[in-house]
Design a protein that fits this description.
The protein is α/β, with parallel strands linked by helices and 195 residues long. 32% of the residues lie in helices and 14% in strands. A 6-stranded mixed β-sheet has the order 1-6-5-4-2-3, with helices on both faces. α1 (49-60) packs across α6 and α4 (115-125) packs across α5. The relative contact order is 0.25.
């Protein structure tokens, strides 16, 4: 998958209800002072699409900083094996980590071989009790099973299933447009971060 244009992706959430909601008041969550890191492959959106819309939501809810880093053509295995992700975590010390990753693995013939890498990434994401979420790729055709591999190995992080998401996509019919990214962000936010 090549770099997203400002306009390109789809989601059903399998997230459990968020335990951090203020049960006594039912009030929306506060992100005051929180640092959020959103990284992964080109589906992150660079400074557009999904990440732009998520940043606006977190900032409106009080987040101190929203850091985004997208790695064009990143695969799950390279993301796990190379130092970049570890360096981002060490440099920014995020309270919340969101990884959007897997688009470059949707057609691998043996996705089960990626389970060890999914576990490695999830372990780093959840270090020191930080909140973590893995957003699966918004598939544009049937995948070979990578979304199930991510879902089954992402614990203790939460999982958002973006398969078959119907959103506005760019001319490549893969990446979300800014509008599509905003639609996608609305679903992620409602499922996991709003309350």
């Amino acid at each position: 998958v090549r770099a997203a244009t400002p306009d390109d992706a789809g989601a059903t959430s399998t997230l459990a209800p968020d335990a951090s909601k203020d049960a006594s008041s039912g009030a929306p969550r506060s992100y005051d002072g929180k640092v959020v890191l959103h990284c992964g492959d080109s589906m992150v959106g660079g400074q557009a699409g999904l990440t732009r819309a998520l940043e606006a939501k977190f900032k409106a809810a009080g987040a101190k900083r929203f850091v985004t880093d997208s790695w064009v053509s990143a695969s799950i295995s390279t993301f796990d094996q190379q130092a970049k992700f570890r360096e981002l975590l060490a440099r920014h010390k995020p309270d919340i980590v969101i990884v959007t990753l897997g688009a470059n693995d949707v057609f691998v013939p043996h996705p089960d071989t990626l389970s060890v890498h999914v576990k490695g990434i999830a372990k780093r994401m959840s270090d020191k009790d930080r909140e973590c979420l893995w957003i699966s790729p918004p598939t544009w055709r049937k995948d070979t099973g990578v979304v199930e591999v991510i879902r089954d190995n992402v614990s203790p992080c939460k999982f958002f299933d973006a398969r078959d998401l119907t959103i506005a996509r760019a001319g490549d019919h893969i990446h979300p447009t800014d509008k599509g990214g905003a639609e996608w962000a609305d679903l992620v936010w409602t499922a996991h971060f709003a309350n």
